[in-house]
Amino acid sequence: MHAILKKKYGQNFLIDKNILHKISNLIPKKNLNIIEIGPGDGRLTEYIINFKPKKFELIEIDTDLIPILKSKFYEYKNVIITNADILNHQISSKVDLIISNLPYNISSQILVKICKMNYKPENLILMFQKEFAQRLMDKKLNSINSLVNCNYRVISNFNVSKNSFKPIPKVESTVLSFTLLKKALLNINEVDKFIEFKRNLFSHKRKTLKNLLRNHSFDKEKYDLSKRVEHISLKELLDIFREINI
Does residue 2 form part of some domain? Predict the structure, then answer.
């Protein structure tokens, strides 16, 4: 059986065995509960299997790829193959690790979904478009890293050439690792309000905080409101958010 790639799913299969090996070697230990998002035809899956997951769920949106995955992994009792859109799929059981060569068109949405989970995975190993990965690693605040950094410590591992994929995409990629903070900077009941708050600020990021927050009541003497939101610290952003939302 051969996979027919579908543009609507943003499918670019990773075929470089060296990169597949390097990604799987980032898995911290054996016997984990693992989810792989978008396994495609199961090439990375074959390497992850070697780490003997306790439970291993493959979540694949493309119905045509399900028979390929089932034929490859039918003998593994710990493998569960789910035909679903990850953005609509309810992750109910405890997960130790999420690993994926993410569809780049939904990278941000998947990260938001993970950050909104009540029981977040201890580790994430995710591949992104290089430009998006740089935004996550940026020392300046932006709309996506301000949320992710409330929950995870992020490390850039290595870049991946576009020639490692079939079909060859137009962009280079980067593999990042995420480790859950011992204590999240946001409480779970604050997440939705914080997402709305920071989205409003970053959608007008060229304006100063003084202009953006002029209609809000908080101790404005404590902060340098002449700055733009990208130039303050995450702690300051959270402090302002909490003062406004008390």
Answer: no
